[in-house]
Amino acid sequence: MTQQNLFSVEDYRRLAQKRLPKTVFDYLEGGAEDEHGLEHNRSVFQQWRFKPQRLVDVSRRDLRTEILGKRQAMPLLIGPTGLNGALWPNGDLALAKSATKAGIPFVLSTASNISIEDLARQCDGELWFQLYVIHREVAQGMVLKALHAGYTTLVLTTDVAVNGYRERDLRNRFKMPMSYTPKVIIDGCLHPRWSFDLLRHGMPQLANFVSSQTSSLEMQAALMSRQMDSSFDWRALRWLRDLWPHKLLVKGLLSAEDAQRCIAEGADGVILSNHGGRQLDCAVSPMESLADSVSMTGKPVLIDSGFRRGSDIVKALALGAEAVLLGRATLYGLAARGEVGVDEVLGLLKADIDRTLAQIGCPSIASLSPEFLQNDGGARPLSIKSSRVKGSHV
C-alpha cells in the first residue's frame, strides 16, 4: 500500500498489520475477553446523527480551542499508550514530536520506552504524564520527576485495579522482554523490516523502571501484568492531589457520579474512558456518559476510546467534551510509517474535523453544541447545553 492509497485510519491499520509480527499487532489491536467492547466503542457513534444548520457562513472554519485553559491548534491529544518502542524505534519520541508539530499535547505513559526526563530533554512540546500506581513510593518518585522535568499535567489512570483478560496476549505469551520461541522467530523472519529495526535499536525497555532507584524486575513484571495498587481509593486521590501542584486529571471514569466526586476531591477535570476496550469487555462506552458528566461536573471533560474519524470527534465535542485523546488511531500511523505516519494520521483527522464542521454549518469548534445532533436511540435524549461558552475559545 503506497502513501497515495492511505485515505483513512483504517488504511494505516492495514499497513501496520502487514509490517508488524502477529504477536505485536495483536498487542496493539486486541481487547479484553471476546472483544465486544472494541465493537461497541465503534458502533456507539451511530447513536447520534448530525442535524446540519444551513445558510451559515462556513467559508472559514476555526479548529483552535482551549484545553485546560491553554490555547491549542485543535481539540486533540495523543493519549498515553505503552510499549510504543515495540511498534517503531523510539516510538514515544516520534509520537511526542508529531504532537508538537501539530500544536497539541502528548501524554507519556508510565509504561513508556523512554524515560520521563529523556523525553523532556528531547521534545519541546507540551508534555503530560500518565500515572499507573503500582507502589506508592515509586509513584511518588515518578510524579516528582515529571514535576521537575516540566510536565504540565498529571493524568491518573484508575481503571486497572487488575489486568484485563486479554486472550490474544495470553495465547501469544506476549511479554517484555519478548520470548524468542520458534513461533516468534519465524514470525519475525516473515516481517523483516520490523525485525531489522529491532536488531538495530535493541529490545525496548520500560524506561521509567530502569534507574538506580527503581531497577526492579518485579516492578516491571507488575506493570506488564497490570498488578496495580488495587487499594488506591478516594483518600489516595487526595494524597496525589496534595503531591501534584499543577493540573490533575482522573482517567478511566464511566459514570457521571464518579466524575462529579473527582472534581469535588480536587481534580481539575476528568477523562472518560473504558481503556479502549482492553479492560472490561462489557463496559459502556464513555460516549454514553459524556452528556451527564459534562452537566454534573462543570469542569473540563475529556474522552477517549474508539475514535477513528473526525466525525466521531465532532460528535463528542458537540456533547460537551473539551478534547479527544487518540490511542490506536495514531499508533496505527506509527506502526505503519513511524513519525511520518503519525503526522499523516493527525492531518487526516484534522481535515476530517474541518470538513465535518463545514458540512454541518458550524464555523468553529467553539460554536458546537448538542443542537447539531439527533439521538437515534440507545443513548439518553440530549437534554444539556454544551459547557462550551461561545467566544471563550480562540
From TrEMBL:
Residues 1-378 form the FMN hydroxy acid dehydrogenase domain. PROSITE patterns: FMN_HYDROXY_ACID_DH_1 (PS00557), FMN_HYDROXY_ACID_DH_2 (PS51349). Its cofactor is FMN. One of its GO terms (molecular function) is FMN binding. FMN binds at residues 80-82, 109, 130, 157, 251, 273, 304-308, 327-328. CDD domains: MDH_FMN (cd04736). Keywords: Flavoprotein, FMN, Oxidoreductase. It comes from the Bacteria. This is Mandelate dehydrogenase.
